[in-house]
Amino acid sequence: MSIDAAYDWAVDTFMDPPECAGLEELPDTYFWKNILYNLNNDRLYEKLGLLPVRGILFSGDSGNGRHTLANALVTDIWKREGITDPEKVVYTRLRAEDFTAELSEKAAQERIDALFQAASHCLEAGETEFAFLVFDQIEQYAHTQILQNRIRDGLEEMEQEAFFLICITEKEEDISAELKSALLCCRCNSPGERARKEFLEENLSWEVPDWEYPDRDLYRQVSIEFSGISFEEIAERTEGFSYQNMQDFVFFLKMELVQKNLDAFTQAMTVIHLSKELVEAHLEAVRPAAKASAGNVIVQNAVSARGTQAEREKGNRMKELSEKSVDDLTVEEQVEILRTV
After folding, report:
1. For the chain, how many structural domains are there in total?
2. Are residues 19 and 162 in the same domain?
3. Other beta carbons within 10 Å of 294
């Protein structure tokens, strides 16, 4: 790949930045949100005698908020810079598919150099007011160690202050010490037992409109509690769950109310009880150790090879649904899953 071709490729990757929830809007379960909120507070860093952070490494297992934090941080930075037009922001997010083994080592390095050069040129020309480079799945890049050093060099050589670098990985041990030394490392780990218990307590209690008085702006608190099993026991039995797994579990419990206890929302009930058996069924449905990939809705429906045609069709349908993420499921598909668990 020629240098000109690499530069054209880099420019083609630029897109509008994500417009999503800022750090302050994230739940408290995101441990890093308050720390990251002050990243572009130059006055605070000056008072502390510290150099402002210009890059972040988000590491940890899938489903623990790395991408959510990265997107929220990007949104916070460019909006707090007073930028109102997203087109004044250079943003790109590179993945493993952008640096495959088909690329030679030289061509891959040219791509990295071109990304920094293109961002720098946009800032110099006044075409943009801030630039972000996001390297996702960085441990999966071909020639990754060489490219990591190239990324570190690019950050050090970037003269413009209106620039921020984000790297995202599931395997921090595969990131070079040189690159890590140039970045603030934010480890997004799976929640411990106490954090899982607190997550359940916070997310299984929420407000709903008081439908007895539809003409008034009134709300009441609704809570899910359990019969025959405690929050502590559930927290213990969700060992190994990521935050995404916990969200999926809570989602299924709330969907159970939609399916079986809809009348509770039209009554003056404030506490709704679910049985231990139902909770255990949903625990298994979301358990990360199942065969479906992490973050997917996991539904195991063992069907004997000698089962009926209907059973086989049902099993195939559940396999099809299990390969979708929660966000991609329609309401009808969600209810369909609940009826099989």
Report:
1. 2
2. yes
3. 16
Task: Tell me the C-alpha distance between 8 and 10, whole Å.
Answer: 5
**Residue 244, both tokens:** 């995404």
pLDDT in tens, 10-68: 999 999 998 888 888 887 777 788 778 777 666 655 656 666 688 999 999 888 999 99
Verify that 303 and 327 share a domain, yes or no.
yes
What's the pLDDT tens digit per position in 264-301? 555 556 777 888 998 888 888 887 543 343 433 333 33
pTM above 0.85, yes or no: no
Of 124, 153, 187, at which residue does a domain stop? 187
Exposure letters 218-242 (e unless 16+ CB within 10 A, then b): eeeebebebeebeeeebbebbeebb
Q: Structural domain of residue 286, as residue ranges?
A: 193-338
Beta strand pairing status for 219-227 and 205-209?
antiparallel
